Structure formats: C-alpha cells, structure tokens
Amino acid sequence: MVTNELAAGSAASPLQLARARGRLGGRLILLGPAFVAAVAYVDPGNFATNSTAGARYGYLLVWVVVVANLMAMLVQTLTAKLGLATGRSLPELCREHLPRPVNRVMWVQAELVAMATDLAEVIGGAVALYLLFGIPLLPGGVIIGVASFAILALRARGFRAFEIVIACLLGVIVVAFAANLLAAGSDVGSAAAGLVPRLQGTDSVLLAAGILGATVMPHVIYVHSALTRDRIPPTCDAERRTLFRGQRTDVLLALAAAGTVNLAMLLIAAASFHRSDVPGTDTLDGVHAGLAQSVGTAAALGFAIALLVSGLASTSVGTYAGEVIMQGFLRRRIPLLLRRLITLIPALAILAFGLDPTTALVLSQVVLSFGIPFALIPVVVFTRRRDLMGNLVNHPATTAAACAIAALVIALNGFLLWQVITG
C-alpha cells in the first residue's frame, strides 16, 4: 500500500519512505539505537564483576544477572520512548523543564559521568592491548583513544553507519563469549538452580549489589534518548506507536545479546575458576591468565579480543554521550577532537602514573553510581507526563515498576558508595 502511494506521487512521511524498503528492510531500519546503548552493559567493568561472581560463588548469582538484565530492558525502553515521543533528548528536556541552577548542576554531574565512563573503557581497552600484544598501558590508552575517534567520525556519514559499526562490535563480543562458553562447558543443572534467588553471606550480598547497582549506566540514558530523537520523526499518533513497537523490539534484541554476554561471563568463570586454585580471578589480567591455564590459550585470546572490542565500542559511546550532554544542557557544541581529548586525559593520566587499573575501574564505578539518580529519576518523571508523552505516556503499572527499579538501583548504589567510603 505504501509503495502504491509513493508511485502515485502522494506525499510520504519519513516512516512511509522507510517502510518502502520492503518488509525486511523496513523493519531493520527501525533497529539500532538500543545496540549502541547495549554496549554499556558489556563494558570492561562488567567483565571484572561477572567473572568475580562466577569465580567466588559459582552459579549462585545467575539470578542476579538475569534480574539486572530485565531491569535494564525496562529502563532503556522508557528512555527510547522519551526521545521518540518528545522529539528531544533527556538533557534537552531537563534544560526546558528544570530551574536554571538545577540544570547547571545536572550538567556538571553528567560531564563527570561521561569522563568516568571513558576512564573505565580506555583503561579496559589498554589492558586488552597489553594482554594481546604486550603494549604498555599508556601507549595502549592512546591507541584506544585514536581508534575510538575514528569510530565516532562515522557519525558524519549519518546515524546508520555509527549504529551498524557498534552493533558489529557487539556481535564480536557475543561470538567470543559464546565460543568460550562452549570451550569451558557449564553445569546446566547448577546454572538452572542459580535462577532461584538466594545469597551466601555478606560478601555475596555486596557482589550482588554491585551487579544490580551497575545495571543502569547514566550516560546511555542520555545517548539512547538522543538516538531515538534523531532517527525517523513521526507525523501522527499511529506512526508514533509503530515506531515505538520497533524500538521495543530493538531493546529486546540488543539487551538480550548483552544479557547473554554477561551470563556467559559468569558461567565461564563458574565452570573454570570456582573451587579451583587459579589465582587472581578478581582482575582482568588474572581472568585472562586463568582462562589460559584452565580452558586453553584460545579461550584467553577470545577473552582479550572481546575486552579490546568492548573498550573500543564503549569509549566511543561514552564520548558521544558527552556531546549529547553538552548540547542538551547548555546548547553548546565543541569540536569532536577536543571532546575526545578532554575525556581521554584523565584515563591517560592514571595510566601514566602507574595506578592499578582495577582500582581505577572501581573508582570510576563510584562516580557512575553517583550519577544514576540524576538520569534515572527524570526519565521516570517525564515519561509519566501525558503533556509530554501524548499517547506514549506510561501505564500506571509501568510507572510503578520503573519507580521500584529506580529506588532499588539508587539504594544499592548508595550502599556500594558507603561500602567504598568506609572501606
């Protein structure tokens, strides 16, 4: 029908033009933003956390990874819906609806979040280059920064080029961990038993809180809302609903891939390291060495490649988040190269001073934890407002679930922050 209308010369909306690509092409064009966001859920910090969970407690915390992924799906769905319904990103909405002093505070903390994100990703990528090629950490960090800049430059060719490259990088991570899981094996019965919620002692509570509390990454909330805003503008309520259905599918597929990777990380560590004498499995290089010892060099190689790809993809997304943040909160832009340098300097400084990479990753997660309420609460508040969302306003049950998730994530991150401060 759409094709006939176009052939007849009638004016076509952007969505109609997209659907004119055919049944498959019309659906694929709706996918992409969530795959960019999903990269944040398989960043180097997740590598360490999930591997530690499996090494220390075996399959005990499988349920935590599953619950965390379900929470992420709802949060990213709301974020995608916000950009689609309002035609504005979350920072833009904050600038429009919050008092000026509050907006400035929001901007400062969001910039710190973007820098903390880049810190973790660059360090993780540098560690991967060291594991793969023996490149020292500081030159490795520079290489990661330059390579991620090349990925970011793809945005000049339009949103699809950037989304496709990020989705391909995510695919490499999925394949690497799928291969490692097959090589390491897994106790299916024990993994299924791990779906039953239970904990063992204070340390397992702390680790579970770390997995759940690190689920919502504030910078991808800003990015996801901007990506759905910029893609296919709807011309009526019916098109808005059609686009939202596409975004829900996008989130389901992308976050399912990220959740599969996180689960594979835990299962591999549980099968390879739990109740073994492999040392140092609470660090990235320790996990790499442990895989080489217990599974084989191919598994260690797959882990290092996945870590490298994760660092490249996630630092590109983190730098783009900084651009979205400044443009939204302040209506200001700075050159991409300058933005890349600003976010890269803290990571390179840490590597230059020889600080422990794992410690730096932990500290970056503390900063991210601090930024979660500033991103998550406005999303819940805005998506429940009919004057902003129109026919995509939250159902009361959706708002209730989102409020529960926000309260849980904020409480867990507050608990983790207190644990870090008190030692």
Automatic annotation (TrEMBL):
Keyword line: Membrane, Transmembrane, Transmembrane helix, Transport
GO molecular function, one term: cadmium ion transmembrane transporter activity
GO biological process per UniProt: iron ion transmembrane transport
Stored InterPro entries: NRAMP_fam
Positions in coiled-coil regions: none
Pfam name, any one: Nramp
Compartment list: Membrane
Transmembrane segments: 24-42, 62-84, 137-154, 161-184, 204-223, 251-271, 291-315, 336-355, 361-383, 395-421
GO cellular component: plasma membrane
Protein's membrane topology: Multi-pass membrane protein
UniProt name for this protein: Divalent metal cation transporter
Organism of derivation: Micromonospora endolithica
Lineage, top ranks: Bacteria, Bacillati, Actinomycetota, Actinomycetes, Micromonosporales
